[in-house]
Design goal:
Helices cover about 55% and strands about 20% of the residues. It has 6 helices and 5 strands. Strands 3-2-1-4-5 form a 5-stranded mixed β-sheet.
Length: about 140
């Protein structure tokens, strides 16, 4: 399993959790019925997300008729671009031909809004511990 497959699997689980536990995300699902598919150009990594009846279903395969397809040149590039969560990175990727989109482009806006909820909340003590560890590593390198 590559990092992109793992990221898509995490997204699926997080979306399913949020569809039952987060009012803001639930509002995004209200009265929606569509399929978004994310994949690499060669389709070696592919997963679709079906949004219907305020629920989220996901499968690690191609959908017969997705409403929107977001394709990346390769798995590493997909992880790098999606991790940035930066609209400019998407624009640069599309201009360079490294990202391709097909279907209802309005669903890209939906996906951008949904992505805001996908990052899990990390408790403050954990964030502080990670920050401390990074500082220790940096000090050891110098």
């Amino acid at each position: 399993m590559n990092k992109f497959e793992l990221m898509l699997l995490f997204m699926a689980g997080r979306m399913q959790y949020l569809s039952h536990h987060h009012a803001g995300f639930m509002a995004l699902l209200h009265n929606k019925d569509f399929v978004i598919q994310l994949q690499t150009f060669d389709a070696t990594t592919v997963r679709y997300f079906s949004i219907k009846h305020r629920g989220v279903r996901s499968h690690g395969q191609m959908h017969a008729k997705p409403d929107f397809v977001l394709s990346f040149k390769d798995a590493d590039y997909a992880v790098k671009t999606l991790s940035k969560a930066n609209p400019m990175a998407f624009m640069k990727g599309m201009q360079a031909g490294d990202i391709k989109m097909e279907g209802d482009f309005g669903l890209l806006m939906w996906f951008n809004n949904a992505a805001k909820y996908l990052q899990p909340d990390i408790p403050k003590p954990v964030r502080q511990a990670v920050k401390w560890l990074k500082a220790q590593r940096q000090a050891a390198v110098q």
